[in-house]
Amino acid sequence: MKHLLLSIIILGVTTSCTSHESTSKNTTIMNNTAFENFSGIDVKNFINLYETSEYTLIDIRTLEEINKGKIKNTALEIDFYAETFKNDINSLDKSKKYLVYCRSGNRSGKTMSLMKELNFENAYHLSGGIMAYENQ
Fold first, then answer.
1. Would you list the domain boundaries of the chain?
2. Which of 117, 125, 7 is nearest to 61 (CA)?
3. CA–CA dist 115, 123 (Å, integer)
4. Domain spanning 26-134: which CATH class is it, in words?
């Protein structure tokens, strides 16, 4: 009976450790806040992640929208409405880290689903888009 109980405890500890490790691969922790991969994040955390220089910024608005202003001039520009959008996203290095934004957060949220489907490893989008950024 003691051996059975010990086996159950060891199995439980092993399972919980394994579960934690797989979760941590899909999560970024900043300022004691965990962000699930492919989720929307607020302006403050978006800026904090961008400033780490580990992330590539992607602006998925139209050229007309981009001409009204950008978050950073170094952002990649990939028009969400272009016929080549899926191929353009798919051509990016899937092992790199990305921050995506649009006007309101709708298109960038849809882009997270696409990036997950295309097996990207790490991406987040700006909840509320550039409108939230401008109103901070």
1. 26-134
2. 125
3. 8
4. alpha beta
Structure token digits, residue 15: 């399972």
Residues whose CB falls within 8 Å of the CB of residue 81, separated by 6 or more in sequence, listed in order: 62
18-36 pLDDT, tens digit per residue, is: 322 223 455 555 444 545 7
Q: Are the CB atoms for 130 and 107 separated by under 8 Å?
A: no
Measured CA to CA, the distance from residue 13 to residue 5 in angstroms comes to 12
Q: What is the percentage of the chain residues whose pLDDT exceeds 90?
A: 65
Burial classification of residue 51, based on how many CB atoms lie within 10 Å of its CB (0-12 exposed, 13-18 middle, 19 or more buried)? exposed
| Residue that wins the pLDDT comparison between 6 and 89 | 89
For residue 11, the number of C-alpha atoms closer than 13 Å in the C-beta half-sphere is: 6
C-beta of residue 76 within 8 angstroms of C-beta of residue 56: yes
Residues labelled as active-site residues: 102
Check the CA dihedral 86-89-91-93 and report its sign: negative
**C-beta of residue 72 within 8 angstroms of C-beta of residue 50:** yes
